[in-house]
Amino acid sequence: MKKISLALYGLLSAASLCANIEDRPNVIIIYGDDVGYGDVGAYGSEKIPTPHIDKLAARALRFTDGHCSAATCSPSRFSMLTGIHGFRADIRILAPNAPLTIPVDTYTLADLFKEANYQTAVIGKWHLGLGTEKQPADWNAEVKPGPLEIGFDYSFLLPSTNDRVPCVYLENYKVVNYDPNDPIFIGFNPKEVNRPGSTEYPNGKTNREAMTYYPSSHGHNHSIINGIGRIGFMAGGRAALWEDETMADIFVEKARDYIKTHREDPFFLFFSSQDIHVPRAPHPRFQGKTGLSYRGDAMVQFDWSVGQIIQALKENNLLENTIVIVSSDNGPVYDDGYVDGCSVKTSQADNDHGHYAAGPYRGGKYQIYEGGTRVPFIISWPAKIRPGISSALVNQIDFLHSFSTLLDRKLPEGAAIDSRDTLQALLGDSTTGLPYMIEEAANALALRQGDWKYIEFYPSKYRPKPPSPELYKLSNDSAETNNRINDHPEIAESMRKQLHDLKKSDGLRKYSGQD
Ligand code: NG6
Ligand code: CA
Question: Which domains are present in the chain?
Answer without folding.
Answer: 6-14+29-177+242-426 (3.40.720.10), 185-240 (no CATH), 443-511 (3.30.1120.10)
